[in-house]
Specification:
Elements: E1 2-13, E2 19-30, E3 46-52, E4 55-57, E5 60-64, E6 67-73, E7 82-83, E8 99-104, E9 108-113, E10 121-127
Parallel strand pairs: 3-6, 5-10
Antiparallel strand pairs: 1-2, 3-4, 6-8, 7-9, 9-10
Length: about 130
């Protein structure tokens, strides 16, 4: 038998502005056998692209299917990672220090650019 005791302390604010503390306590009893299996560890290859001085560095990378590519903006201006065709890559506007990641599940060539600065171009080539 497994017994779990949960206590939660909340503070609610009434309409008149007075804060009222509330304590919720609950005891949960589980009478059945738990079969907990260890989750497999899945290792994923990761490659990094730095955005710096209005450029993607490296500008072109080749990765295997299943690789995560992480773009990190080290520039003073905001940038995006936006697919030239389709919507495979569609980051939000990345401020300095922000990052965007994408796992490539399909073989192909993925050209991208920065939406505010279309002269910034990059390419990810995905192979088996």
């Amino acid at each position: 038998m497994l017994v779990i005791f949960v206590a939660v302390f909340l503070i609610f604010q009434r309409a008149d502005g007075v804060e009222v503390p509330v304590e919720i306590e609950e005891e949960i009893i589980i009478d059945e056998e738990l079969n907990i299996k260890e989750a497999p560890i899945i290792e994923m290859e990761q490659r990094n692209v730095v955005i710096s001085s209005f450029a993607y560095v490296p500008q072109e990378i080749t990765v295997q299917v299943g690789t995560m590519v992480v773009w990190r903006n080290n520039d003073t201006d905001a940038h995006t990672v936006t697919s030239d065709d389709g919507d495979e890559l569609n980051s939000p506007l990345l401020s300095t220090g922000d990052s965007f990641s994408h796992v490539f599940d399909n073989v192909g060539t993925f050209d991208y650019h920065c939406a505010p600065h279309p002269f910034m171009q990059g390419r990810v080539i995905v192979v088996e």
